[in-house]
Amino acid sequence: MLTLYDYGDSGNGYKARLMLALLDRPWRLVEHDIMTGATHTPEFLVKNPDGRIPVLEREDGSCLPESNAILWYLAEGSPWLPAGEGEADRRLRADVLRWMCFEQCSHEPYVATSRFILRHLPADSPRRAELPVRQEKGRAALAMLDRHLQGADWLAGGRYTIADIALYAYTHRAEEAGIPLAP
Prior knowledge:
By secondary structure, this protein is an alpha+beta fold. The chain contains six helices and four strands. The protein has two domains: 2-75, Glutaredoxin, CATH 3.40.30.10; 87-177, Glutathione S-transferase Yfyf (Class Pi), Chain A, domain 2 (Up-down Bundle).
């Protein structure tokens, strides 16, 4: 059975939980409180030397960290990751990957990190000084998504894919990052 090592408030973990639910696969959840250092124990560092969640432990005991890698692994062979050998399928897979890279480079560092600072760090944390720049870049990432989605329901290929799951995880919680979605 698959095991997901996760922290309940993590948007990155949410991606994996949502994919597992969509696939209706049996799995178990093992919670790790990132705020108490639970992902930096010797036992956990064997699963992910980077000390971060989520981590998917496969049936053979091997572990896969990184939320988008977990999404890709789980979605392989499913409707949420386009398959095929033709040029149109290759382009669609590349577009899915493009948006997953955008999520990790231009969205998550700003929306998710702002949310983390506001939800989990004390009001006097020196990291609060990062918020204006992070929130501005988060707004820019959301504006890019908004422009792309003008007249479209989905990010890639006119259908629901793991690109949408990857970007939904923190977008739908942007208000908690101090980034209103209304504009």
